[in-house]
């Protein structure tokens, strides 16, 4: 497929959506460049699906505006925007065959029959559904239905493809397979994509840029690496796998280097926000190393629960002050062991 | 575990195994609870039906067993009842189904006052035909409100809307609409709203979405709604007497059957008319249901 209508810039300007008294999306600002793969990430209720529906035109805005290359589009109904959308439940038309589902958008545009058939053939081949093209949606597996939904959205070569948690109804193995498939389609077709998910692994794997949302507000926008390694606040950190949030008191600050203390704990870490006295030190479970000697940035804890995960063990340990730690380690530990855990300074993030 | 089972355990084991053995033969014992119901239906429906059927072949004067049917079709006063009843039943059912579509369409979403509006639309179902007929007489009668306004607007004579075809048709619409509306609403609510949203993102206008998505998925339900509405309207009796002209243009089949059986004391002929009534209904329903088999009838929830 070629010649899709590329755009330069899609701009969301203080986009707001309220449902009665509750504001689901509080003034979202975002610029999406043509060809980009952007993931909106957050737990349920964070406003990510609302944002997607606003982009698609399925929900009218209650404030702000959306412009495509400077042209205002938020007052257009969905059928005039021409964005492709993949729904969480696929929303395949149950009374139409796979081919007619995929060709639906083209026939609505009164595409000549020969061209319609050619493009549907191409889309069917692209998502590898040649054998199933004459079946009905109810005769397909979840993964195949997903492929139909994707083919139906991209056959129109839309300037923007919107995906609303498309993999959440699939089992784990299929989810990984379809994830790669979506990435492959994006790379080969270059379609600008906005992808909504609550799964940070999925977002990190797929997206060029991540938008982390919480309670209708954008927390951080950045490349997967930026968001993963340098979360801007404790909320994003928690979402990006910093499972250990140790409540601490700040004792000294030297530029970025910050020394913090709690009962039986003394750590040196990197400051990520302006700090007052009370703070949290965030550490990823896999950044702890089990060591034998005492030393700087080393915590002592007692192993409570050990889960076997193959190469690694997921360990729940308790600090002497009663705080809980999550640790992933390849050392073999047993419940009741007293261990020392060392963490590098740059892997301790201090948030207010 | 001990090897010795208490008598109670042994009994429960046997009980379970009986259930399993029956299940293997496709017998579900719970379904046996339907036996009283089935007997009831047999006694009160199948038996009278078969009795009426055989009675219709025993004409009062003896002779040709088909004499009653021959009489029916050779007497225009009787034969015309088929046409008269269809002329009432088909338009009433069709109107009720078609009118319920846009209203049900609007009533799908959530909005303020939905419950009050639904109640208002459904109340006529609870009124009963007699009350509806009285209301119609008062409203559409020669001195009713409608004609007072009609005359005040400058009409020369009051419109004749009662004691004729129109009175009965109105009555059938008022009592039949809530029924059709409730059925249509439930069929429509069963269609996943994201299907229409998906069609919209694919460029389908409102009209195209209705024509290509909603209507095909709703049509099988509408066929059933039409059949039930038609059966209700076709067996019209009280309103044909009260707001119609039972000796003339609303001399429907049920009135003919009633008069023959209970006024003229010809039960055999009355049965024959009742049988013909059932036959006409079956033909109409059959045609509609055959058309329905050509439609998509699977799930409308959109999920696989």
TrEMBL record, chain A:
Determine if Oxidoreductase is one of this entry's keywords: no
Q: What is this protein called?
A: Carbohydrate ABC transporter ATP-binding protein (CUT1 family)
Q: Does the keyword Transport apply?
A: yes
Q: Which organism is it from?
A: Lentzea atacamensis
Alphabetized, the UniProt keywords read: ATP-binding, Nucleotide-binding, Transport
**UniProt GO molecular function:** ATP binding
Transmembrane parts of this sequence: none
Q: Which residues form the ABC transporter domain?
A: 10-240
Q: PROSITE patterns, alphabetically?
A: ABC_TRANSPORTER_1, ABC_TRANSPORTER_2
Pfam families per UniProt: ABC_tran, TOBE_2
Q: Which InterPro entries match?
A: AAA+_ATPase, ABC_transporter-like_ATP-bd, ABC_transporter-like_CS, ABC_transpr_MalK/UgpC-like, Mo/tungstate-bd_C_term_dom, NA-bd_OB-fold, P-loop_NTPase, Transp-assoc_OB_typ2
Automatic annotation (TrEMBL), chain B:
* Residue intervals of the ABC transmembrane type-1 domain: 82-288
Topology relative to the lipid bilayer, per the entry, is: Multi-pass membrane protein
Chief location bin: membrane
Q: Which UniProt keywords apply?
A: Cell membrane, Membrane, Transmembrane, Transmembrane helix, Transport
One Pfam family it belongs to: BPD_transp_1
Q: Is Glycoprotein a UniProt keyword of this protein? A: no
Keyword Lyase in the entry? The reply is no
| Gene3D superfamilies in the record | MetI-like (1.10.3720.10)
Q: Where in the cell is it found?
A: Cell membrane
Look up the domain of life of the source: Bacteria
What biological process terms from GO does the record include?
transmembrane transport
Any stretches that span the bilayer, and where are they?
30-50, 82-105, 117-145, 165-188, 217-237, 267-291
Recorded hits in InterPro entries, A to Z, give: MetI-like, MetI-like_sf
Query: Cellular component terms, GO, for this chain's entry?
Result: plasma membrane
PANTHER family of this UniProt entry?
INNER MEMBRANE ABC TRANSPORTER PERMEASE PROTEIN YDCU-RELATED, INNER MEMBRANE ABC TRANSPORTER PERMEASE PROTEIN YDCU-RELATED-RELATED
Q: Which family does it belong to?
A: Belongs to the binding-protein-dependent transport system permease family. CysTW subfamily.
| Protein name, as recorded | Carbohydrate ABC transporter membrane protein 1 (CUT1 family)
